[in-house]
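Q: Convert this sequence to structure tokens.
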Amino acid sequence: MEGNFTSEQAQRILLELLNSKIRFHRLEIFSAQETGIGNIEHSEQRIIELNREIVALKGFIQQVQNSGMHLNLHGSINIEAVKPA
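A:
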């Protein structure tokens, strides 16, 4: 991902990413509860952390909006095959 965005556009993009991660962890919790297999503590903690990130992001975006500036977003995903631990 790379580009220059208005604060509103950047907020939509970043909130969608964070909300997608929350949905993933909610599904992990649901799956673990249904099957009785897996540890939900990690996903529960990540949801708490991601919600904190959303609050912080909204505060930051509000500051950017108030300044009239745009945001440059730069992101990358690196994929590497590894042996399980």
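The mean pLDDT is 95.
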